[in-house]
Write a structure and sequence with these properties.
It is a single chain. The protein starts with a helix and ends in an 11-residue tail after the last helix. The protein has 263 residues and is an alpha/beta fold. The radius of gyration is 20 Å and the shape is globular. Helices cover 43% and strands 14% of the residues. An eight-stranded parallel beta barrel has the order 1-2-3-4-5-6-7-8, surrounded by six helices. It has two domains: 4-232, Phosphoenolpyruvate-binding domains (TIM Barrel, Alpha-Beta Barrel); 235-263, no CATH class. Strand 1, helix 3 and strand 2 form a beta-alpha-beta unit. Helix 3 packs across helix 5 (60-73) and helix 9 (156-172) runs parallel beside helix 10 (184-193). It binds 3-methyl-2-oxobutanoic acid.
C-alpha cells in the first residue's frame, strides 16, 4: 500500500485528512515536519507565488519546476500535483504524458478539475495506473463558465449536477475528491454518499478532510482572502517588520556588526 492509500484509509476510521498547498522547498520542509497528510502543489501558485490573475496562466514547465522543489523538502509526505489547464483541458493535450511527468518526478498523484471531458481524461489516467484526485464545485480553471468566484451548488439543479460529477468521478476511479466552495449540506451529502474521501475547501466541516492555500492561511498574500480561509499566522507582517529593521540598520551602519564580520 502506498502512502496516499494509507492516508485515504483515514475515512474508514473517521479520522480527518489534513492537506495544504506548498510551492517551494523551505515551506515543504515545514509542512513535512508538521506532519500534514498530503502536500498539494496547487496551480494556485499562479496567484499567490507568481502574482498572476488566473491559474490558467501556468503550464507544465512551471508546475514541474515547483513540484521538484516541493518533493525535495517533503521527505515523508505524499505530494500531489495539480495538472495545469493546458496539460489536459484543451483538445489534443497530452494528458497522459503530462500526468506521467509528475509521477516520474516522484509525485504520488495528480489532481484534475471538473470540465466537460473530465471523465475521459480520468479514465485514461486510471487505465495507465496513475493515481488521480478530482476537483468539483468551484473549479478555478473554468471559473468564467461558473459565473465567477462564488459558491456553487446553491440551486437544486446545480447541487444535483455536482453530486453527479462526484459520483461519476468516483466510478471512474478517482481516489479522492476536492470539494471547493459548496454549501455545507451538499458537501455532507456527497461525503456520506461516496466511499472515497472528500477534501473540502470552503465546503464546511463534514468533509473527510480539509485543504487550504498555504499563503492564505499564513497571511503571506496581499490580496483579500476568501471567507472560508482562517488565517493562522501573519507572516506577511513578520517579513515586513524584519525587512524594515534590516533597512534601518543598513542605513544607520548598525549592520553588519562585529558578530557578522571577519577579521
Ligand atoms: O490550486 C490549488 O491550490 C487548489 C486548492 C485550492 C485545492 O486546487
Amino acid at each position: 500500500m502506498n502512502d496516499l492509500d494509507s492516508v485515504f484509509l483515514k475515512k474508514s476510521r473517521g479520522e480527518k485528512i489534513c492537506m495544504l498547498t506548498a510551492y517551494d522547498y523551505p515551506l515543504a520542509v515545514l509542512l513535512d515536519q508538521a506532519g500534514v497528510d498530503i502536500i498539494l502543489v496547487g496551480d494556485s501558485l499562479a496567484n499567490v507565488v507568481l502574482g498572476l490573475d488566473s491559474t490558467t496562466q501556468v503550464g507544465m514547465d512551471v508546475m514541474l519546476h515547483h513540484s521538484r522543489a516541493v518533493l525535495k523538502g517533503a521527505k515523508n509526505t505524499p505530494v500531489v500535483a495539480d495538472m495545469p489547464f493546458d496539460a489536459y483541458q484543451p483538445a489534443g493535450a497530452d494528458a497522459l504524458g503530462n500526468a506521467r511527468s509528475f509521477i516520474d518526478l516522484g509525485c504520488a498523484a495528480v489532481k484534475v478539475e471538473w470540465f466537460d471531458r473530465c471523465l475521459d481524461v480520468v479514465d485514461a489516467l486510471v487505465a495507465a495506473r496513475i493515481p488521480v484526485l478530482g476537483h468539483v464545485g468551484l473549479t478555478p480553471q473554468t471559473v468564467e463558465q461558473l459565473g465567477g468566484f462564488k459558491v456553487q451548488g446553491r440551486s437544486q439543479a446545480s447541487a444535483e449536477e455536482i453530486v453527479g460529477q462526484a459520483r461519476s468521478l468516483e466510478r471512474t476511479g478517482c481516489l479522492a475528491l476536492v470539494l471547493e466552495c459548496v454549501p455545507e449540506g451538499l458537501a455532507q451529502r456527497i461525503t456520506q454518499e461516496l466511499k472515497i474521501p472528500t477534501i473540502g475547501i470552503g465546503a464546511g466541516k463534514y468533509c473527510d478532510g480539509q485543504v487550504l492555500v498555504l499563503h492564505d492561511m499564513l497571511g503571506l498574500y496581499d490580496r483579500k482572502a476568501p471567507k472560508f480561509v482562517k488565517q493562522y499566522a501573519d507572516i506577511g507582517s513578520a517579513v515586513l517588520s524584519a525587512v524594515k529593521s534590516y533597512k534601518q540598520e543598513v542605513g544607520s551602519g548598525e549592520f553588519p556588526g562585529p558578530q557578522q564580520t571577519f577579521q
